[in-house]
Amino acid sequence: MRLTCPLCGPRDRREFYYYGHEDYLQRPGPDAGPEAWDDHLHLRDNIAGEVRDLWYHETGCAQWLVVTRNTVTHEILSTELVADRKKKGVRA
Amino acid sequence: MRILGKGQIDRNRPVSFRFDGKSYQGYQGDTVASALLANDVRLMGRSFKYHRPRGVLTAGSEEPNALLEVVGATNQTPNVRATMQEIFDGLNTQSQNRFPSLSFDFMGVNDLLSQFLSAGFYYKTFMWPRAFWEKLYEPVIRRAAGLGRLSGKHDEGHYEKAYAFCDLLVIGSGPAGLAAALTAARAGADVILAEEDRELGGRLLADEPDLDGAPARDWVSSTEAELRSLPNVRVMTRTTVTGAYDNGTFGALERVGLHTPARADLPRECFWRIAAKRAVLAAGALERPIAFPMNDRPGIMLAGAVRSYLNRWGVTAGKRVTIFANNDGARQTARQLMAAGVEVAAILDSRTDATAIEDCPVYLGARVTDTSGRLGLRSISGAHVGGNFQIETDCLAMSGGWNPTVNLTCHLNGRPRWNVDIAAFVPSEGVVPGLSVAGSANGDFTTHACLAAGQAAAIEALAEIGVTAAAVPLPRAEGVPYAIQPLWLVEGKGRAWLDFANDVTSKDVKLSAQEGFTSVEHMKRYTTQGMAPDQGKSSNVAALAVLADATGRGIPETGTTTYRPPFTPVSIAAMGAGGRAMGFAPQRFTTSDQASRDRHAPMIEAGLWYRPSYFPKPGEKTWRESCDREVNMVRSAVGVSDVSTLGKIDIQGKDAARFLDLVYTNTFSNLPIGRVRYGLMLREDGLVLDDGTTARLDENHFLMTTTTAAAGLVMRHLDFIHQTHCADWDLRLISVTESWAQFAVAGPKARALLNAVLDAPLGDFPFMACGETQVGGVKGRLFRISFSGEEGYEVAVPSRYGESLFRDLVAKAEAMGGGPYGMEALNVLRIEKGFITHAEIHGRTTAFDIGMEKMVSPKKDCIGKAMAARPGMVGEEREQLVGLRLAQETKAFGGAHLFTQGAEVERETSQGYVTSVCWSPMFGATLAMGFLKNGRARHGEKIRIVDHLRDLDLLAEVCDPVFHDPKGEKLRA
Amino acid sequence: MRYSGWKVITQGLLGNKGWTPAWREPAPKAEYDAIIIGGGGHGLSTAYYLAKNHGLRNIAVLEKGYLGGGNVGRNTTIVRANYFLKGNQEFYSHSLKLWEGLEAELNYNVMHSQRGLINLFHSDGQRDAFARRGNSMINQGDDAILLDREGVREHLPYLDFEQTRFPIYGGLLHPRGGTARHDAVAWGYARGADRLGVDLIQNCEVTGIDIENGKVVGVQTSRGAIKAKKVGIVVAGRSSQVAAMAGMRLPIESHILQAFVTEGLKPVIHHVISFGMGHFYMSQSDKGGLVFGGDLDFYASYAARGNLPMVEHVMEAGMTLMPMIGRAKVLRSWGGIMDMSPDGSPIIDKTHIDGLYLDCGWNYGGFKAVPASGWCMAHLMATDQSHEVARRFRLDRFRTGHLLDEEGTGSQHNLH
């Protein structure tokens, strides 16, 4: 399995650390309540198909990536830097 | 028997090798199978279940029968295919799964009992009495099962792994593969050509068709020469592509040193990870047997294999050969044998409409219905349109048609489709992205079609990656279509084997259907069809045809089982190359490592690091003596310890303080410059992630320390929070763990020791101060922090000065009655002081549990705060950190459980457990830490400690975990 | 038909013509008292115990493929009761007791072999953690023995005690731990359930769950609508998809776990061995193959196949721990889809919909749980009450914080 890091180019999967679904990007406010936090940390759509999830180029550039890929075919559709989203003004 | 003038072995280089203790001669280029056949040895193995005598069936890696042990000087290798093992002088092989000998095997009795050993019989018996399973039935079954033997000795062989990258990976070097490789090579693409055999050519070598009117071998040779001359081509022989993985990654096994006597400069095998932009699968096709009664005797072989042995090794597998086939291809075997002077008794063609014109008798509509010959085929009997026949023959060459080698196309869950014209599964298109299939692997069975398809596949694949390849002139070749009429099974009285390797017969498959195991997966699992070392390569399709027939379905509806990697078995040592001994994980060494070893300190693993356990002095006999001395030394004088393994993260930027407020439970934005603060860090789920100190070096510059174990974890965590939640903040993070060597100096004489090494004496430097310092002209950092409870400092210098500073500190400390201390003493010191480690913050503890809930600032948000407030995370039901004190010295009892006195000892009454234990020389008592239900309210209670495993039942007093200097006066001295 | 050695002999003499199907192939009825979605190990055992323990007869198991085609048929077959948290302890202890009587219960040889499981530890800290575990096991009434290095050497002389990267300090021996023949467990429960009248319906995919006024009333399937007032979702690997049919979002992420088997070898490994530092575990099957595995591939997936990084990591772990296996050849690798939960422990609970029950989240420990999971799920479906030994497997525990996190790795699904 190979992923293309936006900064480093195509790299072997073993350079990356996998975290989970991009749900982790939407951190609730401190008073959002237990349901919102349960949603954030635990509950998942867990789609068999196209998903967006978070990978860390741990032995590369130390950037977190949002990877769009298919959980059935393992096709990688796109990769982008998490930090770019934030800088572009996407509120987490 | 060897045939003069045939084969490509080097007759000038005789080779002698051993099989079952007897010496045989072959030639350079022989395999064990070809050499044994040349010596008229047909019996090469015993079957798995019935222990039936077996000979070689194939000439390739798909061989189900002829599996041997190769015995080396120091070890042995089981289950080696005689068809793949090349002979060399001194090669020693032996048969397996037989006792006492191959020709006489006691376990052959199983064959007589076969009617009781039908598919799945073991699910129906051996149940009574219950205790007999482990004691009797299973040991007997286990001993009877299995094939070759491992020696039980460490595999000391040398293995390697490697990466390779290419534009085009061509898998297989028959006509399609060679055409593809040549086309791509001339276009300048980076090409890897992988061939399982020791030489290129595939079926061109075995079948010897004419190309451009000359022997195919000529074209193979000239093509190979050209490919090898090109810098953009890597030709890999003896290399099996074993698996297709995601995004163009392939696994491949190269047998580097197995064909020669062991050589120090050659690994036995190399496992390749190939990243290919595009790949062409040209792996050819595998011939399949026909299931007919008693079709498993030595001498009954595949027709294509008979042809291979004749043309490649100049060997005839029999003196009087009979052909039994349902297709045209096998006719070639008869013609070539006759041309070589071998007698062909007859061609038995199952079709009624095939031609009968050959230079030998041809029986049409023929079936073989029985065979004889216990250790080797003697005769066959059968029927044809004209009546019954019996033929004396010592070799039956059979062909039930060919199966395209679709395996790799199915490794990503692709399913092959049924092609009725060739009565075989062919690859579905596009099931492995970037991989196309050409030649007979795709169901094209003529040489002409293979050549053309290989070329076309290469041109198309390269076009997809922007490389224009031109057609190259291809040789003229035969293009006669392949004609087949399916014949899977000849019904009759005797057993008809499908899976030779696992002894699965047509009756087993029918029984499975009869018992309701009608799904192809059920049939496979119930009968073990296709689960042997050959993975059913020659038998799966026939078995599912029999199943389809038994269940009244067609073959396409019945479907196949799943093809999974590896294509051929791969040794654990090859895929695990590099893992042996220390290679499994990186080793990290501190700068003081050698200095510690010089002092005979046993070095122990701390994560990936090595740290000194203790520093023994002459006369000390146990670790405890050293440990007690070191503890006393720190408490009374001064100790030096390397703490460089702790994670160090440099944090800078205008928003650095704000960031620390977010990641720590407590506040850091109000920390003055030049001060250090202890911080507690939670995971977002509210449980403790790590603890450590962070120093404010400047307004916008902090240095965080983490525990050794969590250094990487914390770095990743901080990067995540930064990049996901505050990427727009002015903030930079970097790990500087390896940039600094840092030493703890602790004890009443700590200041004196520092003053002895620092360039300027310490001035006012209170507890939790930090600042720059200078040691021997080198700029360093100084922190006044303590993990021992004594007056303590940590001095850090750039790593390259670490060793010399350590040696200097230790030498000067010893002059003051101090010295170095190791992990054991460090552990005692921290338990005495009530400091926690990952024994306590083990991922299930909250700030509440460890008595630090007050460190969770109510004034601000922090990571983990919301989830830490869940009802299950607080309250009396939680186990809370306590100290435990026993007057007596006792065996260690970490992991013991705590019980209220007088209560039953059982699961629900367990009140908690012990996490850390030590003997405290200072207190003259055993001190421990643990978690106790509602523990903070139970100080003073006598609690029972039960350790079943170490046979301990003790009473301890529950107390505050801080035993030593609870007010912290020494720290602040 | 009752199976026995005598039957094998008499049938053998009669040419094995008299063996009858292990189960019927019924067409689905219009209505059942209870429907189990999922014909894997857990679903089949649920159906069996619903019929056996609770007297329900009008039950169907709906399986989209073939019986036992999920993780019950693709695992490393380890059976153990060596947990240390209340909630898990009593459940797995109960399961192991059921295993010990399973052949007699089912009249089917599932080849449960209690050859002993040894968990190796490699530091003082790990020893204490395993001691805590062993003491928990004994408190529960199960068995555990703490071995020092020499004790391990007596059992496993072929380990590399001299050079391995993480030296062996000792091991926790669980004598009653072992293995079983995985397929046979599914088939044994299937046959047992069928004999109690349960309809096992293969090639029947559930496509919808019918809910009216907060109550379940039936399911839609590829073979038509079927009514039932009680429906159990027992589909580990596809839990999120099926639960979504009822509008639920589960605390589950699906991950691949690969496993491996070598070619057949004469007996050389007589225990189940687990190497804590390398995420590696191995046993030898009765057929002679070394059966082993490691950690997840770690990325969410439904592909039932994995990639080389974990394959190689597992092999490297084997080579540092026990290099005598180097010349064994890996014959086949495969991948199963794991329901990974945020604390590594399962869920057996009611849902917010009346009559809809959930059994999921087995992470990669589901095989050994097959008997007790079915036992407890059947109890829950029949009585609407959690069974005593499964009462802590609550669906809402992640929200409330009553976690069962044996690994201590937290809410990240793939870390358990």
Automatic annotation (TrEMBL), chain A:
<dbReference type="GO" id="GO:0046653">
    <property type="term" value="P:tetrahydrofolate metabolic process"/>
</dbReference>
<dbReference type="GO" id="GO:0008115">
    <property type="term" value="F:sarcosine oxidase activity"/>
</dbReference>
<dbReference type="InterPro" id="IPR038561">
    <property type="entry name" value="SoxD_sf"/>
</dbReference>
<dbReference type="InterPro" id="IPR006279">
    <property type="entry name" value="SoxD"/>
</dbReference>
<dbReference type="Pfam" id="PF04267">
    <property type="entry name" value="SoxD"/>
</dbReference>
<protein>
    <submittedName>
        <fullName>Sarcosine oxidase subunit delta</fullName>
    </submittedName>
</protein>
TrEMBL record, chain B:
<feature type="domain" description="GCVT N-terminal">
    <location>
        <begin position="597"/>
        <end position="860"/>
    </location>
</feature>
<dbReference type="Pfam" id="PF13510">
    <property type="entry name" value="Fer2_4"/>
</dbReference>
<dbReference type="InterPro" id="IPR042204">
    <property type="entry name" value="2Fe-2S-bd_N"/>
</dbReference>
<dbReference type="InterPro" id="IPR027266">
    <property type="entry name" value="TrmE/GcvT-like"/>
</dbReference>
<keyword id="KW-0560">Oxidoreductase</keyword>
<dbReference type="Pfam" id="PF12831">
    <property type="entry name" value="FAD_oxidored"/>
</dbReference>
<dbReference type="GO" id="GO:0008115">
    <property type="term" value="F:sarcosine oxidase activity"/>
</dbReference>
<dbReference type="InterPro" id="IPR036188">
    <property type="entry name" value="FAD/NAD-bd_sf"/>
</dbReference>
<dbReference type="InterPro" id="IPR041854">
    <property type="entry name" value="BFD-like_2Fe2S-bd_dom_sf"/>
</dbReference>
<dbReference type="Pfam" id="PF08669">
    <property type="entry name" value="GCV_T_C"/>
</dbReference>
<comment type="similarity">
    <text>Belongs to the GcvT family.</text>
</comment>
<dbReference type="Pfam" id="PF17806">
    <property type="entry name" value="SO_alpha_A3"/>
</dbReference>
<dbReference type="InterPro" id="IPR013977">
    <property type="entry name" value="GcvT_C"/>
</dbReference>
<feature type="domain" description="SoxA A3">
    <location>
        <begin position="493"/>
        <end position="578"/>
    </location>
</feature>
<dbReference type="InterPro" id="IPR041117">
    <property type="entry name" value="SoxA_A3"/>
</dbReference>
From TrEMBL, chain C:
<keyword id="KW-0285">Flavoprotein</keyword>
<dbReference type="GO" id="GO:0005737">
    <property type="term" value="C:cytoplasm"/>
</dbReference>
<feature type="domain" description="Rhodanese">
    <location>
        <begin position="35"/>
        <end position="78"/>
    </location>
</feature>
<keyword id="KW-0963">Cytoplasm</keyword>
<dbReference type="InterPro" id="IPR006278">
    <property type="entry name" value="SoxB"/>
</dbReference>
<keyword id="KW-0274">FAD</keyword>
<keyword id="KW-0288">FMN</keyword>
<dbReference type="InterPro" id="IPR006076">
    <property type="entry name" value="FAD-dep_OxRdtase"/>
</dbReference>
<dbReference type="InterPro" id="IPR036188">
    <property type="entry name" value="FAD/NAD-bd_sf"/>
</dbReference>
<dbReference type="Pfam" id="PF01266">
    <property type="entry name" value="DAO"/>
</dbReference>
<comment type="similarity">
    <text>Belongs to the SoxB family.</text>
</comment>
<dbReference type="GO" id="GO:0008115">
    <property type="term" value="F:sarcosine oxidase activity"/>
</dbReference>
<dbReference type="InterPro" id="IPR001763">
    <property type="entry name" value="Rhodanese-like_dom"/>
</dbReference>
<dbReference type="GO" id="GO:0000166">
    <property type="term" value="F:nucleotide binding"/>
</dbReference>
<keyword id="KW-0560">Oxidoreductase</keyword>
